[in-house]
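Annotated sample (chain length 207).
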Amino acid sequence: MEDLNHIQEFKTSPELVEKLYQNSIHKTYPSGSTILNENAPIRSIPIVARGTLRVMRTEEDGREILLYYVRTGESCIMSFLGGLHNEKSKVRAEVEEEAEILFLPIEKVSLFIREYPQWLDYIFRLYHRRFEELLEIVHAIAFRKVDERLLALLHKKEELSGSRTLIITHEQLANELGTARVVISRLLKQLEDAGEVALGRNKITLL
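Output written by the structure step:
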C-alpha cells in the first residue's frame, strides 16, 4: 500500500487507503494492454498503483490523439465522471508501461465520497490537473508545429520511463499526436539529422 500512501490526500487517512485495497480488484497488465475501450460501460474506476496509462480519443475518421497520461497514484478522471453519471466511456485507456491497477466498483466511489473528505479532495485535484493538461493539448494543436509537439512528447515519455531510449513505433507516435505516420517518420529523420535523436528499429534514443 506504500504506492498510494504518499498521495497528499491519503497521508492523513490510512483507513481510506486500506479501504481502497479491500474493496478493489487488483490486476497487473503488460505494456500495450487496453484496460478500457471507447463506448464500453464503466463499471469500475482504475487507480494506478504502479506504472503509467495513456488515455486516447478516436474520431469518426479513425484518427487518434493522446489526451493525457495517468501516473502512479492517479486515476482516469473521464472514468470517474462517466461512471458516476452512468455513461459509456468516451476514451480508450492503454498501458504505457507495465502497470498494477486497482479497479474500484462504481458503487464504492459514491460511498467513499460520502464517508471520506480526502477522497473528494483527491478527485477534485485530479480533475484540476487533467483540465490543465487538456488546455495544454488544445494550445499545442492550435499554436505549435507538429515537430515541436513531437519533441515534447518524446521528452514526456523520457520523463515517464526514466530512460532516454524509448521502445516505440512511428505509428504509435502518429496516433498519439493525431497525424500521419509518414509525417512522423519525416520529422524524426529531420531530428536525427539535427543530432536530437538516434533512430533504430522500433526504438528512439534522445541525445
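Annotation: Residues 34 and 149 are 24 Å apart (CA to CA).
Annotation: DSSP finds eight helices and eight strands in the chain.
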